[in-house]
Design goal:
heterodimer, A: 245 residues, Elongation Factor Tu (Ef-tu), domain 3, Rossmann fold, 11 strands, globular, B: 88 residues, three-stranded antiparallel beta sheet
């Protein structure tokens, strides 16, 4: 069995802005362990008086990058940890983390496919790790990403996803914008519903492996909708964020 | 049960690993109430209280309760009829 999970001090080596509310933080780890796409790290902040706040953030980078991980973090206005990252952390800062964590909501190329990935907002982060992992795999199973965001500017990894889909006939990206749409928008303009799920299932192909990540109510709706459409519950893995958004 | 607050056991996988000493979400369990067999990662998690409650995704009965204090950890797994932990 591997060594028990231990807290360690990582160093922030890069910060990349993804959207107005979302940035990716590259953490260099003294004790790096290869992760599996879909896993997360726990982050712990300790105040001068000893008060601690802990949150989990999904790994966005593929496991092939040794020694470091990217955590993509959305700023939650009244949060205890994410505002610290967005408002205070600069390159060179040290942050206490433990990971990689989780053996359930994971995908690796050996699992095959087809992959049906459904994300609400920053729920796309662990799914992006899967897509990045898939891109570097020898055999790429067909994959569909159904991604719901509020506005065009809120779509995390928008350009990278478009580029990946344009270069790969086996990858289909379906975007829906629930709050507002730019002129000429050709994607969906409402919350994920039965019609979208039906299209996503058809695009993925028979017997897909399903990963759903996002706010709890979106995950519930998508998971229940898929099961009503005949997808076996055992094929559906979920990661709920809670009441966010 | 407050549905919007509901998470997955994956959200507390770090705390589970700390308590049990290894990755728990891939461990197979059987619900002592309804008999459902599945990975611990399928359990639904409530984390807003003083402790952590994990419920069966089928019958919603309590499978695991955990409370951590600075000096000790309390774990009630009476809702799991068994756990199957891989040694390799």
């Amino acid at each position: 069995m591997p060594e028990p999970l231990a807290w360690q001090i990582s160093t922030v080596t890069a910060i990349r802005t993804e959207t107005a509310e979302v940035s990716s933080f590259t953490l260099e780890l003294p004790t790096w362990r290869p992760h599996r796409a879909g896993q997360h790290y726990d982050v712990r902040l300790t105040a001068a008086d000893g008060y601690q706040a802990q949150r989990s953030y999904s790994i966005a980078s593929p496991p092939s990058r040794a020694g470091e991980v990217d955590l993509t973090i959305e700023k939650i206005a009244d949060g205890e940890v994410s505002p610290y990252f967005h408002d205070t952390v600069v390159v060179g800062d040290r942050v206490e983390v433990r990971g990689p964590i989780g053996g359930y909501f994971v995908w690796e190329p050996a699992f095959g496919g087809p992959l049906l990935l459904i994300a609400g907002g920053s729920g796309v982060v662990p799914l992006m790790a899967m897509l990045r992992e898939r891109t570097s795999a020898e055999a790429r199973p067909p994959a569909v990403l159904l991604h719901s965001s509020r506005t065009f500017d809120d779509v995390i990894y928008r350009d990278e996803l478009a580029a990946l889909a344009a270069a790969d006939a086996g990858l289909r990206v379906i975007q829906t914008l629930t709050r507002s749409q730019p002129p000429g928008w050709t994607g969906y303009d409402r919350r994920i519903d039965r019609a979208m799920l039906t299209e996503a299932i058809a695009a993925a192909g028979p017997s897909p492996l399903v990963y759903i990540c996002g706010p709890t109510l979106l995950v519930e709706a998508a998971a229940n909708g898929l099961v009503e459409l005949g997808v076996p519950p055992s094929q559906v893995r979920t990661e709920r964020f809670g009441p966010t958004s | 049960m407050d549905e919007p607050m509901m998470l997955d056991a994956n959200a507390v996988a770090g705390d589970l690993a700390e308590m049990f000493g290894f990755e728990m979400t891939a461990v197979v369990h059987r619900c002592a109430h309804c008999g459902n067999v599945g990975q611990m990662g399928t359990l639904l998690a409530w984390t807003q209280g003083p402790g952590i409650t994990l419920r069966c995704c089928i019958c919603r009965d309590v499978v695991v309760r955990m409370v951590m204090t600075p000096s000790r950890t309390l774990i009630d797994v009476s809702g799991a009829a068994y756990m199957e932990i891989r040694r390799t």
